[in-house]
Predict the 3D structure of the following.
Amino acid sequence: MSKDEVVLLDFGLSPFCMRVRIALAEKGVQYEAQEEDLFGGKSELLQKSNPIYEKVPVLLHNGKPILESTNIVYYIDETFASPTLLPACSYGRSRARFWADFIDKKVFDGGAAIWRSKGDKLELAKNEFIDILKKLEGALGDKDYLGGDKFGFLDIVLIGSSSWFPAYEKFGGFKIEDECPKIEAWIKRCKGRESVAKTLPVPQQVCELVGMLRKMHGIE
Amino acid sequence: MAGEELILLNFWASMFAARVRIALKEKDLSYEEKEEDLPNKSPLLLKMNPVHKKVPVLIHNGKAVCESLIIVEYIDEMWSDRAPLLPSHPYARAQARFWADFIDKKLFGAATKIIWSKNKDEAEEGKKELIEILKQLEGVLGDKPYFGEDVFGFVDMALIGYYVWFQTYENCADFSIEGECPKLMEWGKRCLERESVSTFLAHPNKVYDLLMSFRNKLGLDYV
């Protein structure tokens, strides 16, 4: 493929950016990552490329922006040939899209409800989050991956989100391996892949960031 | 296609179910429509969509497909031999998915503020948000006949279900969408010239009557 310019407007600890970095790695796509300073000041390129939301990740492919992480992963799968990330059959794809949509609607906000809360509200948020994970555990069943036998699109979507689970565990006072052991096992299995191992941060970095966010929100 | 069983779990006023009804018509597909009584959801709905318990649900040969935009993509892929609903180029597809997602993220929230407002201030707040979002969409439309360039497509389908609710929003918050977004209203009228849209969209007056009956039951009576 000649002269394909791929740039990722990125933030290292963003679970959404992680999805895109993992997808690009799985496809063996060369790209340039430009780290955004989300707290200091967003770049002009980010503001121009994503005027609606001004959020990362943004993928710029030959100068054209693609926005919203799940959308970007679909684009990467449709544009760069192999390996295919989504299931081959239409029904399998509809199930993958359904669960990706569920993860997008529930996981990040559910986790945020934990680290933003205290007391009774925290207990409620924790229980709701565990309920969300149990639904995902149901979707996983006895499979090795959410996509079946192979690591794929849906695993990419959730494994990025899972990078913040250590912070939810710390501030929520629970352990995922006790509540959802299959999810914990799936996380470990995914971390065995090079694309995931190289992308996911160490838990301490995420806990430090979330600790900072808690201070900013006046929680501690 | 012989031997295909399609069932749509539907609600006549839902802007989300409208998308699926229109998509099925665009692809000229036969299906059985089962109308849900939303305060008393059927065992079939609860079984087929246990996670969200919402309509629309498309049941294809016994397998459930949920979430309206996901259903539309599924229909497009399964019956790819006719009437494409999404563009074929990945970049155009990404744009279409982005704007459909924008509509779901933003428009529904603003509309909800208006229709369930408890007082004029809440309605006014919802109205301002709605106008801003509609103006953004009008900007995306530009001078094109449809959001899908020359052809009625995915984003048009995503938005048109809301069009029959415009009169309701106007009545609740005392404003004119035609006055604020004339190009968008023209687009709506253009879409209504399509049989798939005019046959399968609810009537605006009925939608307004439905909302008023809900509001009366909840004791929200300032409108």
